[in-house]
Specification:
By secondary structure, the chain is mainly α. It has helices at residues 2-15, 26-47, 50-56. The longest helix is centred in the middle third of the chain and has 22 residues, at 26-47. The chain is elongated, with a radius of gyration of 14 Å. It starts with a helix and ends in a 6-residue tail after the last helix. The mean pLDDT is 78.
């Protein structure tokens, strides 16, 4: 269920026509998108089972 939620968040953000900073402002629009994807990836790491975190040397972000 957690995997579906994380993938759904990424898909929803890509599908959604709204953006925090429009891509018309080339640099800031791309940095905005990267920040959102990084935030979602951090959430995925937080939700990962402890066995996977230990196996791949991941740490939870606080």
């Amino acid at each position: 269920m957690k995997k579906i939620l994380a993938v759904g968040l990424v898909g929803f953000y890509i599908w959604l026509p709204l953006d925090l900073i429009p891509d018309v402002f080339l640099f800031f629009g791309i940095v905005d998108d990267l920040a959102v994807f990084t935030f979602i990836l951090q959430l995925m790491v937080k939700m990962a089972p402890l066995e996977l975190q230990n196996k791949y040397g991941l740490t939870k972000f606080k």
